[in-house]
Structures are given as C-alpha cells and as structure tokens.
Design goal:
Blueprint lengths: L1 H14 L1 H15 L5 H12 L9 H26 L3 E2 L2 E2 L1 H12 L5 H25 L5 H6 L1 H24 L4 H28 L3 H28 L2 H4 L5 H4 L5 H13 L2 H10 L7 H13 L2 H20 L8 H13 L4
Antiparallel strand pairs: 1-2
Helix pairs in contact: 1-2, 3-4, 3-9, 3-17, 4-6, 4-8, 5-6, 8-9, 9-10, 9-13, 10-16, 13-14, 13-16, 14-15, 16-17
Length: 346
C-alpha cells in the first residue's frame, strides 16, 4: 500500500504542490491505523477457496485486496463529515484538520466550509484510487472478470447503507428493522461478506463456498457493527480513539437504541423512552447525561439483548463455515477472526 501511495503522491504533486500536500494527508490517514479487516477477510477468502501463498498470483492478490483499505478510507472520511465527528483514531478527522489548516493560515471564507470541501474531494479520490489499485493489481483478466459482481455490489451496498443511515437520522426512525438494514449494508456487506466473496471470486470458487462465505459474512458483519454500537456508548475513549457517547451525540439510530425504545414502550415507561430519545442527537450531552442514558440502556435490558444477538449471530456464522469445503488454515483463521471481530474492545 505504501509503495502504491508513493506513486500516486508523485502524480498529485506534479499537478500542484498544494494538491500533493493535501493528498499526503489522505495517505497518512489510510496508513495510520485501523483493523485492516476488509483486506484480511478478502485474503483468507481467497486462501479458503484454494489460493496458495506460493502461487504466482499471490502478490497480485495481496495488492488487489489492499485496495479495500482505500475504499474504507473513503467511507470513513465521508462518514466523519456527515456525522460531524471531531476525532478518528485519537486524531482530528480530515474535515476538522483541513478547517484548522484554513483558520491557521488566515485564508478567505469559512474554515468549516473549506474543511468539508477538502474531505469530500479526498474521500472521492480515495474511492477512485481504490478502483485504480484493484484494476491495476496484476490479477489475470479472467480473475478480474469474476470479481465484477462482488466489487460492484460492495461499493453500491456501502453507499446505500450510508444513505439509509443519514435518512434514518433525519426521519427519526428508531425501529430495529431500520437499524439492522443499515448494519446489513453499511457494515456487514463491505466489511466481511463482499470481501470474502471477492477473495473467493479471485480464486474461482464454486457457488457452495461463495454461499457459505456470504452467510458467514452477513452474520459476522452485523455482529461486528452491534459490538461497535455498544462501544460507541460504553467504550473507553483511550481505547476506541473516539469520545465516549459520540454515537449518541451524532444521532445514530442503532439497534441498541431501537431495542431500548421498544422495551420501554412495551413496559409503558414513556419517561425512559423519552429520556433515551432525547439523548439521541443531543450535541450537548455531557458526562452526567451519558451516564444516565447508560443506566437506562442497561436497566431496560437493551445491552443484554444486543449481547445475546451478537452471540447468536456469531454462532450462526460459525455454523455456515461448516456447510462448504473451505481449505485450512483459512477455515480456522476465519473462525478466529469471527471471535476477534465480535469480542473486541475498540
């Protein structure tokens, strides 16, 4: 990835040094951290479908799946802007960093507007580079042809999930159905399901392996997001890299919130329901307010219900691995990744 980005930075610097410096921020963002789950799942999807590390195409496969980190970079940069998030991985988000750059330099116009424009453009550039890197990875044309379905579907599903997330925040839809639909497409499809499908397609896997991967990926992907939802409210900022309660302040309609609202309504506890809903989208939610909401989410049984759903989805996903002939050590590694992704603390 670093070698690829070095070449692209040379391209942007040739356009103008200022553009080169801006894209250095993009490269730094992509290389600075993250779990690398998407390329990891794609790699093991390829291995499980018969790909071997000593195969002539192994290096090309590694380059191809690494392009998923650029896709992830595009999604995060735009997501942070839409959510008005101030930090990511313990550092200022891209739109905030560029707004500060504008303010410090005393440029004309509004810093926030410049920061938003820069984030949109750099996120778009990351999406373009992801496609460039994937197509130019060196994979055989036959393999690239087989990847058309998962590669195209993954990007459309991701953007569809992001749109539904924004829509739900705007309409105030706090139903479990709506939250799970966002989890299915915004997270599960492009985090686990389609990367596995992509790796399988590169290897030329049969329909049984692809079906097993997709079922595994859909379940683990949703479970992964549910864990993320819990960490967004209960996580330690020193570990997660984001302020505690930011998901609430940003107005995210998660399964955790939906479950709490539904349980409060079932009890006829309108006070608890209204208190939870009042916290969602409250930018001024302070530490005391956050602690009160945490108490309600726990008392209403929403936390336990989400934990149970995570466990059930993880079990279902592991069962799916046994429905097809997935080569070792990939089968064991995917099982380990399932546990890691759903029991993490960040």
């Amino acid at each position: 990835m670093s070698v690829y980005l070095e070449g692209r930075l040379a391209d942007t610097s040739a356009i103008d040094p200022a553009f080169g410096r801006a894209t250095e921020s993009l490269a730094d963002f992509v290389l600075s951290g993250g779990k690398r789950l998407r390329p990891t799942f794609a790699w093991w999807g390829w291995r499980g479908a018969g790909g071997a590390t000593d195969a002539p195409e192994a290096v090309a496969v590694l380059r191809a799946v690494s392009a998923l980190e650029l896709l992830q970079g595009a999604a995060l940069i735009h997501d942070d802007l839409m959510d008005a998030s101030a930090t990511r991985r313990g550092r200022p988000t891209v739109h905030v960093a560029f707004a500060r750059r504008h303010a410090d330099a005393g440029w004309q116009g509004r810093p926030a507007r410049f920061g938003a424009a820069a984030a949109i453009l750099l996120g778009d550039l990351a999406l373009v580079w992801a496609d460039d890197m994937f197509r130019g990875s060196g994979l055989p044309h036959t393999a690239l042809d087989r990847t058309a379905e998962p590669w195209q579907a993954m990007r459309t599903e991701l953007l569809g999930g992001q749109f539904l997330d924004v829509l739900n925040q705007s309409t105030g839809d706090t139903s479990t159905r709506a939250a799970l639909q966002v989890d299915r497409y915004k997270t599960a499809a492009y985090t686990v399901e389609r990367p596995l499908h992509l790796g399988a397609a590169i290897a030329g896997a049969g329909s049984d392996v692809i079906a097993a991967y997709r079922r595994f990926g859909a379940d683990i992907g949703v479970a992964f997001q549910l864990r993320d939802d819990l960490l967004g409210v209960f996580g330690d900022p020193e570990v997660t890299g984001k302020p505690a309660g930011d998901d609430l302040r940003e107005g995210k309609r998660t399964v955790l919130i939906a479950t709490a609202v539904e349980r409060a309504e079932q009890r006829g506890d309108t006070a608890a329901r209204d208190a939870v809903l009042a916290a969602v989208g409250d930018p001024d939610l302070d530490a005391d307010g956050l602690e009160a909401v945490r108490g309600l989410l726990t008392e209403l049984g929403a936390v336990q219900a989400v934990e149970q759903r995570i466990a059930s989805l993880t079990g279902s996903a592991l069962d799916a691995l046994g429905t097809a002939d997935i080569a070792e050590p990939a089968a064991a590694r995917l099982a380990d990744l399932a546990v890691t992704a759903t029991r993490r603390h960040r």
